[in-house]
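Thread: fructose -6-phosphate complex, take 2
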Amino acid sequence: MCGIVAYIGKREAYPILIKGLKRLEYRGYDSAGVALLNGGLNIFKTKGKVSDLEALTEGKHLTSNLGMGHTRWATHGEPNNVNSHPHVSQNGNLAIIHNGIIENYATIKEELINRGHHFESETDTEVLIHLIEEIQKASNKELDEAVRIALHEVVGAYAIVIISKNDPEKLIGARKGSPMVVGIGEEGEYFIASDASPIIEYTKDVTYLKDSEIAYINKGKLTVKTIDNIEMTPEIQKLEMNLEAIEKGGYEHFMLKEIFEQPKSIGDSLRGRFDPVTGILAMRSLKEYEHKIKNLKRIIIVGCGTSWHAGLVGEYLFEDIARIPVEVEYASEFRYRNPIINEDDLVIAISQSGETADTLAAIELAKEKGATIFGLCNVVGSSIPRSSHAGAYTHAGPEIGVASTKAFTAQVSVLVLWALGFADIRGRLSKSELSKIMAELESIPAKVEKTLACESLTKELAKQFYQSRNFLYLGRGYGFPVALEGALKLKEISYIHAEGYPAAEMKHGPIALIDEEMPVVVIATKSANYEKVMSNIQEVKARKGKVIAIVTEGDTKVSAMADHVIEIPETSDYLEPLVATIPLQLLSYYIALERGCNVDQPRNLAKSVTVE
Ligand code: F6R
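Output below.
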């Protein structure tokens, strides 16, 4: 949801901003803009991508040591040149970039209009910079103080950066509910960004701002204060991410790179978390919350999109292996439906970005009601792990393609570990059973590697089916969340309508859709539901649907019925989602390519949904 980057120091700001915006473009790509301080305040902004901004600035005077850039995912106001960031104050002295939503902007705007302000854009952001100007003017305040007072007046979420024509050595950043990291470079230079990717090649020293904190960078010095004016000591951390991890490494798209990274990312998510000699799962969350886990009555899993699908796999795992009742909830529903939660509950919040607004709000609600929160996130230092009591990182590495792939399999991998750990603590699993499942889990990276060989087959299938208007995805048991995930991948990057269904539910409605035009992807591996799924395939075939089946290597029965089969290595039911998802990711990738879609930046989407 919008990417922001800013620089102050001795280097040329513009190249740093453009490179940074390209790295942040996964967060939004409706429009892009920069503001540079070089004598005056020079603003260049345009509807479109960062490459359009580069074209706009060609041949322009861009020399500056202080500037900021923005890539937008539109919330208030359609994506056009005027609504693009940066926005300026009425007197043209101040400029702002913003990620988030100012919920009470309409009221503030009305008051400002009454005081003679004119607005050019439809954005909430422009209102905030006018408000800061008004506070400066009305009470003769310094900029630092005016920003602080203004932030007290706004309701909503923000990560903002402000620069002023009259303060060429000043950069102000603030956050509430939207992420912001400050990089500390050489000789008094500083970087501000939505995530560390624009900063990584200049410095490894960063501090993550906390909610309601303001970073004042003035004359080469950083001061962090709360919006209540209390000075804080910034916690400086070393970035562990490397540059290679955020580049395409020879792949045409980040999504393809990330699909192919899965043998490694799953391995990284498991590494060091199980000792095969002692049979002990070495996870801090298990150790520190052993008593809680032993006594808990229920697990509630919250998440959105793909993370919610991982949560569904989690439900099956925890109930199957640890025999704990589980509810899986869309965070956006959970937070508003007055759920019954109590102190014996454990809430597991799953999120790749660790910043999803609804998931964060669900955590806050559950915390208020006394539940214990485990966060399962990929982005280190993000808001959800910081709001949780405990948790685990997925260690999948940066996921930049907007469609989530390696984050999903990493989430499922950690959920398997937790399910085993919980079962162990509650005496539901013998050491030998645990070791057996762990041995199988540790063989998954190799099985995923083998599965990736189906790439050429998915390419061929894509050529055959890319013009289909609809797809159905069917699965039972552990295959059901896989079907949901396959359908989501297809619709988000290829814009083909797709539905995931429990295979047996098909006859309660969706079967009416099936005809010779309808491709039906069925998860038909040799699981506990194998025979049942075969009956469902027969039902599809009887209505002339085209079946693409994901089958276990060497299968002959399904192969005899289906129009096309993609083989995957055999594994236990628990671990099936880790392998069966791979061909579906590849299929949607190649269908989207055939349709000429922008795979890494699908329309209307953004990687990190920091607004509700
Ligand atoms: C789908 C996708 C989204 C995210 C969802 C949650 O490919 O990427 O559905 O899964 O927006 O995001 P996180 O996991 O960051 O909370």
